[in-house]
Design brief:
single chain, 635 residues, mainly beta, 9% helix
Length: 635
């Protein structure tokens, strides 16, 4: 785990480019705001919220028996098992205005159909005894978001886990009120592998699964201009009364909320691949936001500009003997524009809707889910260039997709397949990060000094990457780490937080790590992360001791989006991807990109991005010495 040093930072001279939202974009913002008047803040949102459970359905499993029995040959055709989904199974999904917003922990009870106790009708086929004995009592369980897998197949009576499910995608059809889950791989669980006497088979893919269900609503809320006009909750057995649930959630054990509105990323429940373009893939990361504050937080949908925007990032830790020498950002997305808060209690803060205008605000202690498919929906994603990440301001036309068409990666978390392929990155560890940036926190801070919550809006979670070379699946590992950026997980590194203009601009972080890969060689690795600083970082300097020999000077940055019409960059050209130039001079080594005056679209370290600088030296760093109000590391 990394260390954090809040006061001071180890090294350096850093120069800043212009504002990341840019003078050019600022001029366009004014024009767009005038041409597209925003709705009044009290208009709120209008729509229909539904919680739905399984009414009926079917499940199909295709099992490769040879694989299941540890036989490497897969020549035999797979065995197909058919199940019916038990009516009224509490496998719950959340839908708003016919869009799937997420799913909640629950299970589907399976009833074996048209199969013998051995599992198949074909002569000569038989399942492994343990699985065969459980065929008539299996369930598919949706696990909590901090579990390693989203779905598992279990014995409903004993709880024994046979298979983990990975690689699946949810698809909801609002016209038919049907939910399909396709493309799921059945992986042997560690518990099942141990019972088979083959522990090393854990994670082996032995089949696939598809699920098709008709859903029925158990709660329907109609919202007009942010006000609930009606709420219908059919009384189904096992469903707790909402008022009782809220009363329990807001009891004596409710956490103390901070002063003011405070949106945080409470959870990153899942992520998935949604497209490919050449040697790049486009991903989406699911997010659950929570209001950690005691004031309602504005959530007015576009064209109103008082709502959060949601960037998503992806990182890899790799290199060295323990695969932790480097921490690099390998992907970034544009921004999902939030709409229609659903007022759940996923963070267990005690959702309190009393006196709160629901839907157009995220009420104190409440949560709002966005599935990865929604965060990857390209027409709902706007450019980062329009947004001032400290004030949260942006124009009403910040999500304008006129004049261009999309590829499979456009605006999504775009990553080179070579950065994900497990065969090319053995031992690499991956982390997803999301951030919520909102103008309401800044405006509240201006009118309520001391109640400023703009610095804790990023959270991260580790994910395993499987598949390749062109199609990948992802499974969460452990819990989401809230209110910290992903660079804080860099093993063995020292990370320093810097606030260059307190009260007027955001923060950035400088992380560094020194390793000794071979005798007489010391590797210096730096990771500079801009969380919400509107000014882009343009130059990075490391002072050197006279006589030190430097080699293997390197630089790394994540891919940039190409230019798009209406993207907020100068002349819609997109941000440059030109690598920074590293230059060694007497007493220092400096990397830099163009200045703002030279190129407003220069490849600066803009908000929500992390850049790396590295080199090897023939001696260790001498003790840090102080110069003026900053601190410099001497080599």
């Amino acid at each position: 785990m990394s260390k954090i040093t809040v006061n001071g930072f180890a090294l350096l001279l850093v120069l800043f480019l212009g504002n990341s939202s840019g003078n050019y974009a600022a001029q366009s913002k004014q024009n767009n705001a005038e041409s597209q008047p925003a709705r009044r803040l009290d208009e709120g949102v209008t729509g229909t919220f539904q919680k739905m459970i399984v009414e009926n359905g079917s499940v199909t499993m295709d099992l490769h028996l040879n694989r299941l029995k540890g036989i490497s040959s897969i020549a035999a055709r797979p065995v197909r098992l058919h199940f019916a989904a038990q009516a009224n199974s509490f496998f719950t999904i959340v839908v708003f205005n016919d869009l799937l917003r997420g799913s909640e922990p629950g299970s589907v009870v399976l009833a074996l159909q048209n199969s013998s106790p051995g599992g198949v009708n074909d002569p000569g086929y038989s399942l492994i005894a343990g699985l065969s004995a459980s065929l008539k009592q299996l369930v598919i369980e949706k696990l909590p978001s901090d579990a390693a897998f989203d779905l598992v197949v279990r014995d409903g009576k004993t709880g024994f886990t046979f298979f983990n499910i990975e690689g699946h995608q949810y698809d909801y059809d609002p016209n038919a009120q049907s939910l399909s889950i396709k493309g799921g791989n059945l992986l042997v669980s560690q518990e099942f592998a141990n019972a088979l006497g083959r522990p090393s088979d854990a994670g082996a893919i032995v089949g696939n699964i598809s699920i098709g269900t008709t859903m029925q609503p158990i709660e329907v809320r109609t919202i007009v201009n942010g006000e609930i006009q009606s709420a219908i909750m059919p009384p189904l057995r096992g469903l707790p009364d909402r008022s009782e649930a809220q009363a329990g959630a807001t009891g004596a054990e409710t956490p103390t909320l901070v002063a003011g509105p405070d949106v945080i990323v409470g959870d990153l429940p899942e992520m998935a691949q949604y497209g490919r373009n050449g040697s790049f893939v486009g991903l989406g990361i699911g997010t659950t936001s929570c209001n950690n504050g005691n004031q309602q937080l504005h959530w007015f949908a576009l064209p109103n500009t008082d709502h959060p925007v949601i960037p998503q990032n992806f990182y890899r830790m790799s290199g060295g003997a323990d695969n932790s020498d480097r921490f690099e950002q390998i992907g970034q997305s544009w921004l999902k524009h939030a709409f229609a808060a659903l007022e759940d209690n996923a963070c267990n803060f005690g959702c309190n809707t009393s006196g709160c205008t629901q839907g157009s605000n995220l009420c104190p202690g409440c949560s709002d889910p966005y599935g990865s498919s929604l965060n990857a929906s390209q027409t709902g994603i706007g450019s980062r260039a329009w947004v001032n990440p400290f004030t949260g301001s942006f124009p009403s036309g910040a999500n304008n997709h006129n004049g261009h068409s999309h590829t499979g990666t456009s605006h999504r978390v775009t990553i080179a397949t070579s950065d994900l392929d497990p065969t090319q990155n053995p031992g690499g560890t991956y982390f997803a990060e999301a951030q919520y940036v909102t103008p309401h926190e800044y405006s509240w801070c201006q009118s309520h000094p001391g109640e400023c919550n703009m610095y804790n809006n990023a959270s991260y979670r580790r994910f395993n990457v499987n598949g390749g070379p062109n199609n990948f699946t992802f499974s969460g590992v452990g819990s989401t780490i809230p209110m910290q950026p992903a660079n804080m997980t860099w093993t063995g590194a020292t990370v320093s937080q810097v606030e260059p203009d307190p009260g007027n601009d955001g923060i950035w972080f400088m992380g560094y790590k020194v390793t000794n890969p071979s005798a007489g060689v010391w590797h210096y690795e730096y990771a500079v992360y801009n969380e919400n600083l509107d000014r882009g970082i343009q130059s990075f300097n490391v002072p050197l001791i006279p006589g030190v020999n430097i080699s293997n000077i390197g630089f790394h940055a994540p891919p940039q989006e190409p230019g798009w019409p209406n993207d907020g960059t100068q002349n819609n050209q997109g941000y440059s991807s030109t690598p920074w130039t590293g230059t060694q001079e007497t007493g220092s080594i400096t990397w830099n990109t163009e200045t703002f005056a030279q190129n407003q679209n220069a490849n600066a370290i803009r908000w929500g991005t992390l850049y790396n600088f590295r080199f090897d030296a023939d001696r260790r760093r001498a003790p840090m010495r102080q110069s003026g109000t900053s601190r410099q590391a001497r080599l």
